[in-house]
User: Fold this.
Amino acid sequence: MSFIKEQEKYINEILKELNYELPNVAILPSNRRELGDYQLNIAMSLAKKYHKNPSYIASEIVNKLDDRFINVNIANPGFINFSFKKEILLDYLNEVLEDFNKLVDKHETKTIFLDYGGANAAKALHVGHMRSPNIGEAMRRLANLLGDKTISDVHLGDLGRQAGMLISEIKLREPDLPFFDENFKGEYPKVTYTPSDLGELYVTANIKANENEERMEEVREITAEIDKGNKRYLELWKQLVAISKISIKEIYDKLNCHFDLWEGELDSFKDVPKILEILKPYLHESNGAMVMDVKVETDTKEMPPLIVIKKDGATIYATRDLATIYSRAKRFKPDEIWYFTDNRQSLYFEQVFRASYKALLVPYNCKLLHFGFGTINGSDGKPFKTRDGGVMELGSLIDQISEMIRPKIKEDIENKDEVCEKLTIATLKFADLMSFRNTDYIFEPEKFSSFDGKTGPYILYTVVRLKSLIKKSGLENFKLTSIPNTEVLDILLKIIELPQILNRSYLDKSLNYITDFLFDLASLFNKFYNNHHILTEEDEIKNSYLGMVKLVYIVMHELLDVLAIDEVERM
Ligand code: ARG
Assistant:
């Protein structure tokens, strides 16, 4: 159990002895440091609840505090201010030096299934596609840290109009391929397109189909054929998906995203007949389509029925999500399924979740949760674009940032490419995770790639500094023996706040609390570093400083790991 939580438990026991009850006792960092490092504001709530004077209750509590609490004082109307004895802070933090988990309040283990990534096969990833993998991956790692079991699935969008587009274009260019011969009986050949060929095929087909209705009709037909299970097209399409996966995986690897499962919409096909049978009693016809009502009486917002089967008899995005939910619940029995997509899919997921519960595709105790995120905008407040106004591919953004970073890296670094790539990814990820999940943010390439300020490179620079100090010290064992000044105290108190930060991030499914914490900690440390020559101090003080250095390093290292940001050795 973390230090603060343990002290909160102790306060709870005191309350019990005093015959008071309060659901959440919180020890908070003080906002009036001259009165103490911490404050306890519970006397006010208790006063209301028990109709007593808050300062009376405060003094009752204060009288019971043991000698771990020092400089205790009460400020009007009943704020209890105090600090903790230095020795117990040091004992605790020395334990953290041995085991980072002492800074983590584990919760009861749940099995969480995470659906993030969501790239669409044979279509380039755009800037906006970065948030789902960034947030999803970090949330997976945070859940693991807090004790959950997780299963992650990229859930590829591998069915849709792009299939018809690509195949219609290939048919035009290579009409003799056996995939286009209804009577072909042998084994289908392997096509030799590269991932970038697919990009070109899609763009060309898209332009042609948008200009020509007949061509668009063909695209629709082929897409519908695949949906119906047409073997020839399906065989070709699966090959194309496999090729496309290579480039998708490359980008996710760069972003340090690792998926346990590489499934997608195509994989849900096998469960579609089964779920349609289950859903049958709930479906009714509407304009030729089969839909399911998901509205309830208490709804205050519009809740349209969910289309399950289209007019032409084909399945739809929703059908495949329903089948996927059914299969996930059956195979993995998760306690919760988390979806990370952009906010625009909120209503959609609400419909799908309601339909799933209504038809019992999942048991009621499996929580289906959608966590939406905001858009990444340019300085004009509209979705981030290329200079000439086109959609910005994620790969191009990575290249652009990398070009801005490269000249800033020290000349004599050998593995410059690797360092540059890591700084680039750190730039993107830190920027992406630092705004609250639900809000839009403006992507500012200059600002975010700066080595100064609240940026990924600044954090990594601090880590480089910490590692270099640790190495130069020549020490093997690090221990905190004293708190020589308030700068060190502030750093240590910051670290003690971490367990609460982790919980808040987990509850809100937003990593901004962690990026804020990293930045605050790095700033406190750098301020200290600029004022002190750590390595030339006399031994006693030097060793205590180095204990703090090591501790800051451990904390930053673990948090960067949660955010899936790699460290560098030099930069
Ligand atoms: N491919 C989808 C898109 O681009 C995201 C998939 C999200 N996951 C899901 N199970 N629907 O919008």
User: Anything to note?
Assistant: Residues 86 and 110 are 37 Å apart (CA to CA).
